[in-house]
């Protein structure tokens, strides 16, 4: 059997099967007369084999995700600082800049890339349903470029938004293109791995990326995607860690709670945080679905709707001076013991809700953690003799769980971003209680419900297949 091989391929075949029939050179290539077994060996293990191309795609995509996540984080911080300087110099400026900015960004999003609106996590969930279609409809280069630019724009106008959700969508796109360049077929696991790597790069928390892939991005965690997810997450996390250093997102927390303190504080945090998080989730979904004529009329006019919501954010921000941007600084200050108004959590929740339903790009991870810090500050008032920072973390994990409904992810994010490993059990108790409470109040999970709006409408064939799946009696028999 005659076949073509590069010189290094020849060495592979010679080492594996020394009984070559003949070897000749032709135009810089080597023509070998080799057995069929050697051809199979080259096809399966040579440098152009699918397994090697897949490894290159994972490595290249993960490194790129880490670099882009780090650059995006720096740009987001810069944008937030620029707006803070503006608001401090001219207190009235946000009353003009923020509403106009909301209207302009919502209009640009609707015109250029409707799939760039909102968090980006629902888009990645929808992309796992139809990977090939998703590359052009949900995670194309145009969509993610618009997402990156406009998310920075939202922070420049003081929006209560975060960069973590957009990072997930951008990361899924990068991983998808890496596999396309290497001619590897797209599967759901590619987007799951990319999105998980985005979480790891955004928070500098690799374990949280793995947990998020299991709890949120993958409806059912398949064993065959384990290596892909773990590899992408660890490489993206190491890239970000190597360039930015071993920083802790919210600062180091060494406080702990005794068993008695946990038994009292954890249920209170779980109930309060779960209720408030479920309220936020239901409010976001209801705003997009309600048929109440005033809201429906405004939804049909996205720029006007976003402008009015921007005015609400501006008024609350000017009145409080605390609710702008991601809320990272306020959350860190509350954790470290700074005094904060007891209404901060409610005010930040209102501005985050207004931003989330405005139709602009932007995530809710960081703002939700900031609202959770406000919830924890309320609890700190109820337990004045308990370690204050620990109580705040219970509120953060409980509220975040109530919104996202991913208790394991919430616990790992809080423990990794605060180095509070001594609080793992209290945090887990609060998260599990909050999950039960939130499920009672809001049956739908926020990201999963939002992902449905990015799916194409079902066809009659899809409806018949779904009906047959739920009614075995109607399934045709061979």
From TrEMBL:
<feature type="region of interest" description="Disordered">
    <location>
        <begin position="458"/>
        <end position="478"/>
    </location>
</feature>
<feature type="transmembrane region" description="Helical">
    <location>
        <begin position="56"/>
        <end position="76"/>
    </location>
</feature>
<feature type="transmembrane region" description="Helical">
    <location>
        <begin position="190"/>
        <end position="214"/>
    </location>
</feature>
<keyword id="KW-1133">Transmembrane helix</keyword>
<keyword id="KW-0869">Chloride channel</keyword>
<keyword id="KW-0406">Ion transport</keyword>
<feature type="transmembrane region" description="Helical">
    <location>
        <begin position="91"/>
        <end position="113"/>
    </location>
</feature>
<keyword id="KW-0868">Chloride</keyword>
<feature type="transmembrane region" description="Helical">
    <location>
        <begin position="386"/>
        <end position="414"/>
    </location>
</feature>
<feature type="transmembrane region" description="Helical">
    <location>
        <begin position="304"/>
        <end position="325"/>
    </location>
</feature>
<keyword id="KW-0813">Transport</keyword>
<dbReference type="InterPro" id="IPR014743">
    <property type="entry name" value="Cl-channel_core"/>
</dbReference>
<dbReference type="InterPro" id="IPR050368">
    <property type="entry name" value="ClC-type_chloride_channel"/>
</dbReference>
<keyword id="KW-0812">Transmembrane</keyword>
<feature type="compositionally biased region" description="Basic and acidic residues">
    <location>
        <begin position="466"/>
        <end position="478"/>
    </location>
</feature>
<keyword id="KW-0407">Ion channel</keyword>
<dbReference type="Pfam" id="PF00654">
    <property type="entry name" value="Voltage_CLC"/>
</dbReference>
<feature type="transmembrane region" description="Helical">
    <location>
        <begin position="226"/>
        <end position="250"/>
    </location>
</feature>
<feature type="transmembrane region" description="Helical">
    <location>
        <begin position="262"/>
        <end position="284"/>
    </location>
</feature>
<keyword id="KW-0472">Membrane</keyword>
<dbReference type="InterPro" id="IPR001807">
    <property type="entry name" value="ClC"/>
</dbReference>
<dbReference type="GO" id="GO:0034707">
    <property type="term" value="C:chloride channel complex"/>
</dbReference>
<feature type="transmembrane region" description="Helical">
    <location>
        <begin position="346"/>
        <end position="366"/>
    </location>
</feature>
<protein>
    <recommendedName>
        <fullName>Chloride channel protein, CIC family</fullName>
    </recommendedName>
</protein>
<dbReference type="GO" id="GO:0005254">
    <property type="term" value="F:chloride channel activity"/>
</dbReference>
């Amino acid at each position: 059997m005659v076949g073509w091989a590069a010189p290094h391929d020849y060495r592979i075949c010679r080492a594996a099967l020394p009984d070559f029939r003949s070897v000749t050179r032709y135009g810089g290539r080597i023509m070998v007369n080799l057995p069929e077994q050697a051809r199979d060996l080259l096809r399966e293990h040579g440098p152009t084999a699918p397994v090697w191309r897949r490894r290159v795609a994972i490595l290249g995509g993960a490194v790129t995700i880490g670099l882009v996540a780090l650059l995006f984080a720096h740009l987001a911080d810069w944008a937030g600082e620029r707006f803070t300087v503006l608001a401090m110099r001219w207190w009235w400026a946000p009353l003009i800049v923020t509403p106009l900015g909301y209207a302009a960004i919502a209009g640009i999003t609707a015109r250029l890339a409707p799939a760039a609106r909102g968090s980006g996590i629902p888009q990645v969930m929808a992309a796992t349903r139809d990977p090939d279609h998703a590359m052009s409809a949900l995670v194309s280069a145009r969509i993610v470029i618009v997402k990156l630019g406009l998310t920075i724009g939202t922070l420049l106008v003081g929006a209560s938004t975060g960069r973590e959700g957009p990072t997930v969508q951008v990361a899924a796109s990068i991983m998808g293109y890496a596999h396309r360049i290497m001619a590897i077929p797209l599967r759901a696991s590619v987007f799951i791995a990319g999105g998980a790597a985005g979480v790891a790069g955004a928070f500098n928390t690799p374990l949280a990326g793995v947990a998020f892939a299991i709890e949120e991005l993958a409806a059912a965690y398949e064993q065959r995607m384990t290596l892909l997810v773990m590899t992408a997450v660890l490489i993206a996390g190491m890239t970000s860690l190597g360039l930015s250093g071993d920083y802790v997102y919210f600062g180091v927390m060494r406080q702990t709670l005794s068993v008695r303190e946990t038994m009292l504080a954890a249920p209170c945090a779980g109930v309060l945080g779960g209720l408030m998080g479920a309220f936020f989730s239901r409010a976001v979904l209801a705003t997009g679905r309600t048929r109440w004529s005033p809201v429906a009329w405004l939804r049909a006019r996205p720029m006007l709707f976003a402008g009015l919501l921007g005015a609400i954010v501006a008024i609350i921000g000017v009145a409080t001076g605390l609710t702008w941007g991601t809320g990272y600084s306020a959350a860190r200050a509350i954790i470290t013991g700074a005094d904060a108004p007891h209404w901060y959590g409610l005010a930040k929740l209102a501005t985050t809700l207004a931003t989330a339903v405005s139709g602009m790009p932007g995530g809710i991870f960081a703002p939700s953690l900031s609202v959770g810090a406000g919830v924890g500050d309320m609890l700190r008032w109820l337990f004045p003799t308990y370690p204050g920072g620990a109580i705040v973390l219970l509120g953060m994990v409980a509220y975040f769980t109530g919104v996202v409904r991913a208790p394991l992810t919430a616990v790992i994010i809080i423990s990794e971003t605060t180095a509070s490993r001594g609080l793992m059990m209290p945090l887990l108790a609060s998260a599990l209680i909050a999950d039960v409470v939130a499920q009672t109040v809001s049956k739908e999970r926020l990201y999963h419900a939002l992902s449905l709006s990015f799916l194409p409408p079902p066809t009659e064939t899809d409806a018949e297949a779904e009906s047959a799946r739920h009614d075995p009696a109607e399934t045709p028999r061979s």
